[in-house]
Amino acid sequence: MFINYKLTQSINPKHYDVVIGGDGNDQFFGTSSREIALNVFSRKSGLYLFQKLFQYVSPLLSGMERFKFHNNGILHSNELQDFGFSNTELNRLFNDKSRSNKNQKEQQEMLNFNKQYLWRNYFTDLNKSGLQVIIHKASRLSTLAKLNLAFPYADEKILSFLNTLPVKYKVGGSFKELLLGKGQSKFLFKQYLKDKLPSAIANKKKQGGFTPLGIYLDDKAFRMKLYTFIKQTFSEISFFNEKELDKIIEAIDKSLNDKGVWFWHTQKQQIKLMYLLVISMWYAIFVKDDRRDTLSDYFNPKHITKNNVKKNQTKPKPLPKPELIES
What's this model's pTM, rounded to 2 decimal places? Predict the structure, then answer.
């Protein structure tokens, strides 16, 4: 969101009739081929139960963040990233036990690499990550910046064609090569472009991106204000478990105080905190109609602006627990 926001705000809509976005390519061809291959191997070899057992006890273990991260990626290879929160944490936080495992038929299909890859490609990469998250996010931010943003990859004819192709054209390499991380993602796309782009670009390894949240969250005093604001907000929403929220925030702060912890684990904890903040801000602005000029203003209960809550406004009623909807 930060990166998209800065990009869209830096473009003058008067200078361009249309802006081209590159999103959609990953989602159309599929992702996580190595994790899916390892998931299938783990299920067939019997390692899967040991991995689940390790995940269950992992909150009690310290110093194994990298292993926990990759183990979780393999166990949940066919799912969208969980925004840093495990299903167990979400169940407890929402007082909800609806996030159950897939049915037996779906579990059997997970034993086949091609079926699991296509399942993830359609339900997770395309529908959730591609359309509901990435393209939706970029489109909304471009609207905010008054830009006409188009996605040439997100074309119905391209999608229909790619859906007819066998998996071997989407990901190159044997099953063994995929296990060893030697497979090639977006295989057909890269084959098409390898003679059209310089080799330095065509053969360049993918670089992971991250948001430098540490700039803000390394400040202990600032984090304490965040925690107070989040806890106060969540206490007003009836379907959240305050004790579980305290545990989550305590674990986040413990990780952020440990400068020797693995970088991506720290990044995950920072992202979890930001999501809690987003929920709190949404509640303050759209439920309580409490609109202030800056984030810091929400940390000062005495701060009043012309957009702030009306003096005689009554406290909003607690939100009801949402009913579960079968998809």
Answer: 0.77
